[in-house]
Amino acid sequence: MKTLKKTWPFHVMLLPSMIFLLLFSYLPMGGIVMAFQNYKPWLGFTGSEWVGLDNFRYLFERQDSVQVIWNTLIIAVLKLIFNLLVPFVFAILLNEIRRVKLQRTIQTLVYLPHFLSWVILGGILIDLLATDGFANRIISSVFGIQPIFFLGDNDWFRFTVIVSDVWKEFGYNTIIFLAALAGINPALYEAAEMDGATRWKQTIHITIPAIIPIAAVVGTLALGNVLNAGFDQIFNLYNPLVYQKGDIIDTFVYRTAILNGEMGFGTAIGLFKSVISMILILLAYRAAAKWANYRIF
């Protein structure tokens, strides 16, 4: 009680967040029961037919649902790789700029897209990447080839999604690696320079080894979100022409559960994704603790 008397203002500050978490994260979990029912909104939880694991069996029997799982894995894994590799390299290059004002200006410019929503960027990309848009005009005039249907061709859609996501996020993700670079002891560079090491050798033998541990932490923790391929981005960019290669679990759930009314089946897909994501998060956390000595508690 003595401790509570001293800390009650902190508990009061925490209360709105706890209420928000309860209302929007825990109470909706009661809807998981729909995954085991042929749910009908007009019958409710108690009146809908109980079907057990039929929705999960149907998930793996449907050809389109299996394709959606593969699409999600391919897009998410490629995003994970390039959203780790590009900021890693860019942070090293940015760190080599000696003019502080120029370095900060570039850093600010490249992380600004992170703060734009995919609703805005989706509209911009749709206009830029249209067959008669600015990008295709440049391609046609420079290379003399036919316009590319970036957002309507299955062969180009994944490429467009991954490149646009990396462009949007790499500047913001660079901050993590710049923070790691700032923690390197300058004496290491001075000693290397006295030994005759060039800037390239200093980068290879000092800079890169110093930020590999943080890269390992970021990479392993990102594995927990490998099934989150980016609903906002895909939803604002895709169309029926690219469902075969561009449809992911989240957009598939939206169409089946909300638009088509298959709420039981849609809930089963969402539950399947959540369980796999939880397992991956636990494995990623254990990996980060073992290989990078990273622990939250």
From TrEMBL:
Keyword Disulfide bond on entry: no
Cell compartments where the protein resides: Cell membrane
First-listed, main subcellular location of the protein, grouped into a coarse class: membrane
Recorded superkingdom: Bacteria
ABC transmembrane type-1 domain mapped to chain residues: 69-284
Key words, A-Z: Cell membrane, Membrane, Transmembrane, Transmembrane helix, Transport
Any matching Pfam family: BPD_transp_1
PROSITE patterns named among the record's database cross-references: ABC_TM1 (PS50928)
Membrane-crossing segments per the record: 12-36, 68-94, 106-126, 170-189, 210-231, 263-285
Membrane disposition: Multi-pass membrane protein
SUPFAM superfamilies reported in the protein's UniProt record: MetI-like
Statement: the UniProt record of this protein carries the keyword Membrane: yes
Family affiliation: Belongs to the binding-protein-dependent transport system permease family.
Protein name in UniProt: Aldouronate transport system permease protein
Annotated source species: Paenibacillus hunanensis
